[in-house]
Amino acid sequence: MGDLHASAHDEYEAITQPVLTVGPLFNRWALGLGAVVLWAIFAWAWQLTFGLGETGLGRPIFWGLYITNFVFFIGVSHAGTLISAILRIVDAEWRRPITRMAEVITVLVLFFGVGNVVLDLGRPDRALNVILHPHFRSPLLWDIMSISVYLMASSFYLYLPLIPDIARLRDQTHGWRHRFYRRLSIGWTGTPKQWHRLERMIGIMAIVVIPIAVSVHTVVSWVFAMTIQPMWHSTIFGPYFVVGAIFSGIAAIIIAMAIVRKVYRLEKYLLPIHFNNLGLLLLVMACLWFYFTFAEHLTTWYGQQPHEVTVFNARVFGPFAPFFWLMVVTCFVVPFGILVNSRTRTVRWTVIASISVTIGMWIERFTIVVPSLSNPRAPIHTFTYVPSWVELSLMAGCFAAFALLYMGFTKLFPVIAIWELEQDAHAAAAVTADPVLAPRVEEA
Amino acid sequence: MNDHLTRRNFLFYGGAAVAGVTLGQVARRQIAWADERAASRESGEERWAVSVCRECAASCGVQVRLIDGRPVKLEGNPLCPVSRGRLCAKGQAAVEAYYDPDRLTGPAKRIGPHGSGTWQRISWEEATSLLAARLKSTAGRPGEVLAVAAEETSPAADVWQQVWRAAGARVHSTTGATAGRLRERWAALTGIAADPSFDLEHASYVLSFGAPVVEDWLSPLWTQRAFGRFRRSSGRPRGRLVQVEGRKSLTARKADEWIAVPADRQVVLVYGIAAVLLRENRIDREALRPYLRNLNDFEQAVTTRFTPDEVAAATGVPVVTVLRLARDLVSAERPLVIMAADASRELVDAALALDMLLGAFDRPGGIHAATPPVFTPQTAGADAPDTGAAPRVIVFRDSAEFRSLATTPDLEPALNTADLVVSFSPFLDEAASVADLLLPTHTALESWHAVVPATCVPGQMMAIARPVTPPALETRDLIEILKTVSDMVGGPMAAACTWPSSEALVGDQLARLAATHRGGPYTSIYETEWMQQLERGGWWTAAAATEEGIGDAIATAGGWADPYFEAGQIRRRLAELGGCSFPAPPVLPSAPLSPVILDSLHPLQMETFVPVGVNRLGSPNQPVLFELLGQPEARPWGPWVELSPETARTVDVATGEHVQVESASGALEASVVIVEGMPPGVVALAFVPAVPTGGRWAREIVRDVRSLAREDALRTGPVAVRIARV
Amino acid sequence: MARWGLVIDLDRCTACQACVVACKHENNVPFSTPATAAAGRLMTWIQLVAVETPSHGAPTALPLMCQQCDRPPCTDVCPTSATYLNPEGIVAQIYPRCIGCRYCTNACPYAVKLFNWHTPEWPESMAPLKNPDVSVRPKGVVEKCTFCHHRLMRAREQARADGRELSSEDYVPACVQTCPAEAMVFGDLDDPNSEVAVLAASSRAFRWMEELGTRPKVVYLREGE
Amino acid sequence: MRRALLFTGVACIAAIGSSLILPAAPVTQVLAFNHAKHAALTCAGCHAGIQTTQRAGFPSPAVCAKCHATAPASVAPAAWEQLQTSGVRFWKPVTRLPEHVMFSHRRHVALARLACASCHADIGERTAPPARMPRRLVMNTCLACHRAEGASEDCAGCHR
Fold it and tell me: Is A61 on the interface with C (CB under 8 A)?
């Protein structure tokens, strides 16, 4: 074992090096993002002091940016766990360098998903009432239950595969880092018994986390679908949201991968094949997403139920049409155009497609939340919803805080699972023997 | 981490804990202190008292809910024959006027330039002597003083008139839209010196010529209830309302049928219908003979001048519709023709004539004569002759919006020449915005009342009440101010005002009522009581009651009523006179349909209307009333313009969007309300008076209809405008 | 136990909005400004809306308040049971329990639940105007029409003090009490002899959006024959 | 940095903890009223509202003057005179309920015959005005009694 460690030390220095050193670029970014976060905290304090009236919301548009962000972040959270779990179960060996990056996204982004709900509460001081006096018929409560289970499961699922790597860092460091890693590694020494247990636990978690993840976004969709509001009350919302979630999740991983690869110079580990393969997955999800979107809108249009069609018209032809068509372009036209062609499935273009999808999926959440509320059944006064500076600041703060935390993670833990790569090295023969993947590996 | 408790660590954690506890306790003390301030130390004692609503001439009886002596809510006085426990929006909002944070706190004189709204508080002594000195210098020269007040029948209004006439003033009254406006034509036709009273409630078919039945016709609350019962009462078929009006008003929208005829052409339609009735022999001539002298002449004139084709041509109403209206009217069980209070003389004459042809006089669901009033206005002194000279002193009383469209003379020039303008009103209203001296009087809840409500039921009433709450601010009773000023001026003025206060004046009135040995305090279950009294042929108070006792009972109930009225009075009176003569119908006018000249620049005819919530008498600063504007289209807090769908299409606007309404002399932004069925060439603009120097809410309305045309132009008719999308 | 219901005869209603003011003053509903009204923050528990009703071509002004549904879409979705259907059929809102998530406001097809965007404020001089029987809702909670439930509590207390049963005249909401055209009738829908029960069974009766299965206890009587 | 965070954390915990554990801020009355000494009077004698209104109410100075023609021994005559002439109710409430709770004294005292001590504990025997609520009242205090007595547990019945 000692041998292995010594050799591994050299072999994976590219991965451990960024963890242990903090450069000026990191500090500059951390400072910048920290400033945005501080500003957002100020905005939140402002909102807490003066009430939700500091947002652009009103009657009947009771939900806006916060709930859009909530759905979006929860969607992105499907990135990780689900992908890494599925790929692990189907033994897709190419997943090894990307699983951790995906899992981190999941865990971090869930906080922002839940956090946006808290931002949206009129009385966040009473948020505990949900636990103290729960009402089980409320989809919001189902949501809270499934998200908290998901958060726990995915945190665990992130932590388990981290243990061997933490132990590796423990052995390489001293001072506070050493103490920190020592506690976290919970006595990992790499005995075969420990390996056996770990592998089993990871295997179990990979299976457990999939239904939980599916349930999470299904339940998020039910928050809308369980009401009888036009264009929310839809039976396909469950799968539609899950597909959208995985879609935006994959896009998020691709972007994260590209950034990490570039900043930490991990080109050696994050190969174009990863972008290619995830790009293919993204393409499939784009098609699925388009199918669901089409089905959802076709049935509404064909049915011509007065209230449904009012929302439909507002979304497709009316004031929300720019958002809607931008969504169609960014979620389908752009990624499909790029990814359908194997020659454009390069690192650069998959990243462009992913950015497009991320923007598009955010808009999709927005066009689900706001147009239905802007066109209520009752003929009451409506207005044009324009997010206020508080909402925009908090949204910026969420994204900045996410980036900051992600950066922080990369400074504490290796973003690529080293031990998995080690295993991968053992299984390298299997990869090259793979009839589908082998040619592309050569291409790279 | 160090697991040992060193001194340093102890100090550190101890310090943190102490800081935390201190902070927590300070915060909690703050909260407790705020709590304590919020917790009222008062007992929360609840009391109800009666008062009189003074937001319009209807003078409904109100009930005030007082908590610890402070008014909390206004509700209708169940004993009052007019309100019968109900109250309209404006009446309820009056409590906001009482608490108005921008109410005048005491007398003040203007220090800034005219209309700037900058005031300096002065003492009552200074204020009254200022006015007295200026009045002395006019030395009673006729026409130097102009007194403007809202019309009302009350001892206080009499004192007001007497005092100012004694000062040589011309006294002007802004008239409300009450039955009093119809008095003159009614008296000319029937010879009865009382107001007509329309039994809308029991009619089965109502043909209304511009009468804003569901808005504020005559006595609004009474009309509302009568309308409800007219529409739906058990045991009777549903009442049918046909509205003849130029624009599609709220009443027109509520009516079963709306016939678009501009106000100046409605008289043609009335005679057209009369002509059909006469030509088709659908009236009972023999029954009419004893009451009518000139039926033959009238028939001759009407049938020859108003042939269906000519009527159709002049009014734009198809012949079949004219015929149908006439036939529907006579075939209805109890038809009634009504008109707007501010209708032209010709229209009132014509509509009353049609009512007579339909046998509506003295019949349930028809027209009755109100009992000649117990209280007759004292007309001591006469107006100074109009020398044409501009008045130097103008005094306003309770005329929040003296420049309203209902006012007759154009005050603008007089305001420019006068050197002292005085406002007797508790509010920062329109009069205050041009005044030099503010003499704030008590609000309705702080005042003594004795006022004759606008005629509605065919009995007699007088609303009488004591103050329900002591004056909250340094305001004064109107009579007290008048007395002080008159005494200072001396001469005829001092002689004209003999009462020291409203309390004395009302007390005097109570004594007089007791002495009439008629009627009694407002009593519960008014209608039952009324029927019983009718059977007995009168209503007398118990003989044992003392005058004080009666007075006290009246003031406690909120008023005095004598529901006795002489059934069949009109017919009897007409029979005595040997019948009346119908006024000769006018010659069919041949002038152009619209008095307004439209051109390619201003192609639309704009009509102005006053929304129900707009308060013309009381405070302009009641927030809830601004919220009522523009409903149900959710366009509160400002003027709105009603467009036909066709007009809206030409400028591509939808309900809720904004347009600029432009006339030759100004422009105004208003939100759009599309009204299905409006004539395409007509737009209707809501008049929401702007009081830029008023209170915090009134100030939110920055411009009104008056920026589009001079007020006299608005009063006389439509204005040519164009609209543009904003 | 009674099941309180309200019948509004649109044939009688004159759209005068007396009910709107009565409600506002009775229930301490704060005032708006032009800016807050434009931003969709005008607070009224009852308001007029233009609705196309059966057999009346043009839109009718419909006084709209909480329809007090027997199957309320809003109560199901509340995560804390802050809003619930009480045993007498009133959809209540318990302010100190409400977390302000506004799920119920979105679930309500009638859009009659309101949210306190700011701390409600009255000018200092208007402080005594508030009805002591009704609380002032803090910022961040949802509020709604309660059929003037505090009046029921008072009426019941009074009836008990007088040693008698609660009768129909004892308890009416402020809007019904003031309605000048006598268009509103309030009472127990379960009492077959009550006026509301008789009117609710009339051929003119309709419940707005009842096709959604909300089973409102506010019954409208359409205009016309 | 770490120490500063630690300090803030400890301070916050101390602030919240102490606020929950320590009793509410004390209330000091203008006059040191001795309930025990006035035991001969009924509660309703001074708190006139308890039989008829929602709020119990405090006696006005005039009520005191019915018995105390001159200043009581413990009160300075000048201060007494001033309180008498001002006419305001100067007592500060000690037992306060949150604004959203509707509690009717009439319903509980006059109709349900609930003893004053159920909520106000031993205030009638106190020789000095209490600085704090004599009995801590929380929702469960009300609910326990409502359950025991079979009274309505409908939330809207008490929450306004």
Answer: yes
